[in-house]
Amino acid sequence: MSSSSLQVVMLLLALFSLSALVAASAGNFGQDFDITWGNDHVKMLDGGRFLTLSLDNTSGSAFQSKNEYLFGRIDMQIKLVSGNSAGTVTTYYLSSQGPNHDEIDFEFLGNLSGDPYIVHTNVFTHGEGNREQQFYLWFDPTKAFHTYSFIWNSQVIMFLVDNIPIRVFNNLKSLGVPFPNSQPMRIYSSLWNADDWATRGGLVKTDWTKAPFIASYRNFEANACVWSSGSSSCVYNSNSLQTNTWQDQALDATGRRRIRWVQKKYMIYNYCTDLKRFPQGLPPECERSKLH
Q1: Rg (Cα) of the chain, in Å, rounded?
Q2: Domain annotation covers residue 80
Q3: At 11, phi and psi to the nearest 5?
Q4: CA-CA to 256 of 20 to 30 Å: which in 20, 57, 84, 116?
């Protein structure tokens, strides 16, 4: 074999190895998740790269990750229930287990046709939540897939939509504010009926003639530290080693501009401005960090 031919073969082998690595690091619902509820209401397509949850008047559906993670960046592309989705809730969140669990939430509250979804966010630490912020979106989340992300490291939790930060929760343990940094979490998602509270405080009920309601998922990525319960430690996955900027990521100047834009135009509730809810004074993180 000539040297030029050998170089071509080596190049092809390198490209093949690279493509195999990328394929291995890409999320696969069949390999990475377990169905936890409504098995017959879950469909996996395209070799596990595409998943749908459905809800009707017999059952909803849900899945959870096989792995637990302690810090990382989690991305999921979701297309939400279209049409009259009032009463339905699509969730996507991280959570540990037990009564003193930590949790980081996206919840998408359906609405009447033509009205916008409400994106509900919350942070739980040691079983305590009550840190709600809610937003409308600047696009129709039912027409196409959009990427919803968590960045979670030892200093900050960031919520992002299409890589635009909408909320930040800072580590202010020095002020006595608990921060989730010791309990590994799984990834969860579900589609269920919550018409007792989800739409206008429960005034609008689910229209079951529109069922089945369907939410679609694709392009899951976990650039994260995978927890090993046997050794009580975590191991960075291969994808995380390549894109580990999340480990010390915080808002830069561009991020601060974007989050101000989102909160000015699309935020509809912020617990940090709800003086009626906290007559004795706002939580300390609101005053110190001016939480986004």
Answers
A1: 21
A2: yes
A3: -65, -45
A4: 116
Q: Could you tell me if residue 118 is inside a domain?
A: yes
**Cα dihedral angle (281, 167, 145, 219), rounded to 10 degrees?**
-120
Query: Any idea which residues carry the catalytic annotation?
Result: 103, 107
Which pLDDT tens digit goes with each residue over 119-155?
Answer: 999 999 999 999 999 999 999 999 999 999 999 999 9
pTM for the model stands at 0.87
Predicted local distance difference test score (pLDDT) of residue 155: 94
Number of domains comprising the chain: 1
* Dist. CA 42–CA 61, nearest whole Å: 7
- Is there a domain that residue 5 lies in? no
DSSP 128: B
Which CATH number belongs to the domain containing residue 152 in this structure?
2.60.120.200
Q: What is the pLDDT of residues 164-199, one digit of tens each?
A: 999 999 999 988 999 999 999 999 999 999 888 777
Say how far apart CA 171 and CA 11 lie, in whole Å. Answer: 46
Return d(Cα 195, Cα 88) in angstroms, integer.
7
Check if the beta carbon of residue 169 is closer than 8 Å to that of residue 125.
no
Task: Share the mean pLDDT of the chain.
Answer: 87
- Cβ atoms within 10 Å of 229's Cβ, excluding its own: 8
Burial of 252 (0-12, 13-18, 19+ CB in 10 A): exposed
Question: Which range (3-12, 76-85, 279-288) has the least confidence?
Answer: 3-12
Provide the 10 A C-beta neighbour count for residue 263.
Answer: 16
Q: Tokens 């046997």, residue? A: 230
